[in-house]
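for the writeup, i need someone to sanity check this before i put it in the appendix. the sequnce is what the collaborator sent (i think, or maybe the updated version? ugh). structure was predicted straight from it, no edits. if anything looks off just tell me and ill rerun, i have time this weekend
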Amino acid sequence: HDLELSRIIKDVVAFYNVNGGYLVVGVRDSDKAIVGFDGAFDAGDLAKRVAGFTKHNIDVKFRSLTYLG
């Protein structure tokens, strides 16, 4: 869990450095198929962890979307 979270933190910092971006979860990289995400996610916890590593407060928002396709 910590290794995966550290990868997400790295991505958040990279997006912050270029003034924004989106992390999309639930889409397989290889064929772009929607596979879903049913894990728990706490944006506040991620923001605290990012601040702990970087000493900067980065605004983290979470939104769950439904694909009807």
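DSSP finds two helices and no strands in the chain. Residues 24 and 30 are 14 Å apart (CA to CA).
thx in advance!!
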